[in-house]
Design goal:
five-stranded mixed barrel; globular; eight-stranded mixed sheet; 14 strands; about 250 residues; 5 helices; alpha+beta
């Protein structure tokens, strides 16, 4: 793995493909990836393995609509497509590391472009936010996974938000038990109770106009509290780990 600040420039198509495959293989909790449809087949084995590892995979496919379409359910948690080819190459793994560059690097082997791979949490967070806040919102939803089997423990908070949103959309009541930090004094505690709201724009219908917002509202014995992901400031708590379960199983 690259040392901090962790920047590496790739100037060949093969190097970029290898780097993206490696990033997909490294993901433990979440993965965002925007690639041209013509090059998607290069990453199908790695994406399929990521799904089998229970990684959240948000896949944005852009460009040629006439290209072959793989079975999305085998390679992604949610898929959106954009017909235009203006979307850059964007990959983030676990919001810790990633890669960005011109998408033509994957479709034109002699294109005079380059891609930058990074192992830097701040850069990864910025790219993750750009992916969701701009390009993902412009896409058309093509596939979303079914609600997962419960109970399930999530280390990637955005995955828990997505599944809670899908469960609530389907009319399935869910409860949460979360290990959290107070955003005011940073004390650690555990909260639990029914999930009464999921604020997100990962899947339709969006319940937040702010693409950066991903939060759950949990009805605790002391009243409703809001829980956000890593770096949360507006919510009452920052989630470290969360388990969702069907309410009627308790």
């Amino acid at each position: 793995m690259m040392a901090q600040p962790g920047l590496e420039i790739h100037r060949t198509q093969s190097a970029v493909i290898d780097a993206i495959q490696s990033l997909i293989d490294s993901a433990e909790g979440s993965l965002t990836i925007a690639v041209p449809k013509l090059s998607l087949s290069e990453f199908v084995p790695q994406l399929s393995a990521a799904i089998k590892r229970d990684v959240l995979v948000l896949l944005l496919v852009h460009g040629d609509e006439t290209g072959p379409t793989p079975a999305y359910e085998d390679i992604a948690t949610a898929v959106r497509t954009i017909e235009s080819g203006i979307t850059p190459l964007l990959v983030t793994a676990d919001t810790q590391r990633g890669l960005t560059g011109h998408a033509d690097m994957l479709t034109d082997s002699i294109a005079d472009y380059q891609a930058t791979e990074f192992d830097n949490r701040n850069l990864a967070h910025d790219e993750f936010t750009m992916f969701l806040g701009s390009h993902w919102l412009m896409g058309t939803e093509r596939y979303v996974a079914d609600v997962c089997a419960f109970p399930r423990t999530f280390s990637a908070f955005q995955f828990a938000v997505l599944m809670a949103a899908l469960a609530l959309r389907a009319g399935t009541p869910v409860t949460a038990r979360a290990r959290v930090l107070s955003t005011t004094d940073r004390t650690e505690t555990t909260i639990s109770g029914p999930v009464i709201n999921a604020r997100q724009s990962l899947v339709y219908p969006a319940s937040s106009k702010n693409p950066a917002e991903r939060s759950l509202t949990i009805e605790t014995d002391d009243g409703p509290v809001t829980v956000g992901g890593s770096g949360a400031t507006k919510e009452a708590y920052e989630c470290r780990e969360i388990t969702l379960d069907r309410a009627d199983d308790e």
